[in-house]
Amino acid sequence: MVKQGRPQRGMVRILLGILMVLLGVWALEYRMQWDITQNGRNSLSQASVDLLQKLDGPVQVTAYATAQDPQLGDVRGMIRNFIAVYQRIKPDLTLDFIDPAEQPQLAHEAGVKLNGELVVRYHQRSARLTAINEQAFTNTLLRLARTHEKRLLALSGHGERKLDGIAQRDLGDFGSRLEAIGFNSEAFNFADEADIPRDTSVLLIASPQIDLLEGEIDQLLDYLARGGNLLWLADVGALHGLLPLAERLGIVFTPGVIVDPQAKRLRAPPGFALGTLYGRHAVTENFDYLTVFPFARQLILEHNREWFGSVLVEAAPQGWVETGEISDEVSFDADSDVAGPVSVAVALSRIVDDREQRVIVVGNGHFLANSHLGNGGNLDFGINMLNWLAGDEALIAIQPSATVDSRLVLSEWALTVMVGVFLVALPLAFLASGILVGWYRKRR
């Protein structure tokens, strides 16, 4: 057997030392992590990552938190761990701590009232944040990233869906999300103001229920002529005086309701259509979510030299436009129905006074209503539309990573079996085995 000489052992030690140093340097330079939680809940979503990469300057976060909280414990540690996830993507995002108990004057000047409250600053703009989660923090960055506040006016006075309404048909939940990302929304009634304000970023017409007056139509056409941006949600049925607006845009609304057999196979009610085909547009770029349009109508873009138009969403590729009555037994009639896929939403744009004017028309208002906003990617699609209309297509919609439901729900029979096994059968089995072992030992 050949023994290893001292020079060889010394060389091995040197090589091991060099390897350890290299591993140490590599560990300092590169960090790797794996998120094994359901749905990657402890990692940033791709939407948050994209937003951080688009912010072109430093972000300063000041946390007004004590070292320890009687109820929450190590508040600073929680904040530090939360911000560290963002700092790995954006190194120039800094975090500073101020103890509100030791420096109450600074906390008062910042308007801070809660222990653990954050103040986020970006490009001389600031916002306070009380909730520490990805959705709240990224929405705060979205608000600060906007160059100026966006004014969204919602036409009212004709039974339209309300952006602050709580009824099932209203858009209150959607309006709250828009406010969270920097839109200033308010109702507009021609009875209160004769003209639509010129600082309006987007005008919303959400499914009026009664006819608009002729003078109101003239004001809408004037708003369109001077380059105003518009989002029009048109449900099935009459246009209530808005036909001149449709003609000006070059859009034809066909009668009937879109029927989608695929939605029926997913146990959706009759008249629900799934948006699965998306056009090439800034609104739908990298958008691969399913959208759900209840009782939607078809839109057809006519050839128009004035506007550049594109289809945003097509639904029901295996369905059709049903012109008859909707029921569970509805079927395609080649003589009267229109075969799918069916266009549901279209985008229009043109240049007015050296500025791009943007319009989106959707043959459905239900998909953004409180009762249906949570279906599929409806919320993301709605926010993307408003961002594009307001000229902020670089900003994206952020949704929190939802944890898969991990609750264990047991039937009464299963609970009875578990009680019988663990509380009765197993103790009796252990008792019987003990008696048997004792009896066996006595016999020996």
Characterize the largest beta sheet: strand count, sense, and whether it forms a barrel. 9 strands, mixed
Read across the widest sheet, the strand sequence of neighbours is 6-5-7-8-18-17-14-11-12
Mean pLDDT rating: 85
Report the C-alpha radius of gyration, rounded.
31 Å
Q: Please count the beta strands (DSSP E, at least 2 residues each).
A: 18
Q: Quote the CATH topology of the largest domain.
A: Rossmann fold
| Amino-to-carboxy terminus distance | 56 Å
Order of helices and strands: HHEHEHEEHEHEEHEHEEHEEEEEEEEHH
Low-confidence stretches: 398-406
Question: How many structural domains does the protein architecture include?
Answer: 2
Approximately how much helix is present in the residues? 25-40%
Question: In CATH's first tier, which class of the largest domain applies?
Answer: Alpha Beta
What is the assembly state of the chains in this entry? single chain
Structural class: alpha/beta
Architecture (CATH level 2) name of the largest domain:
3-Layer(aba) Sandwich
Give the overall silhouette: extended
Count of discrete alpha- or pi-helical segments spanning 4 or more residues:
11
Strand content: 15-25%
Keywords: Membrane, Transmembrane, Transmembrane helix
Pfam family, one: DUF7088
Organism: Nitrosomonas halophila
InterPro entries: ABC_transp_unknown, Class_I_gatase-like, DUF7088
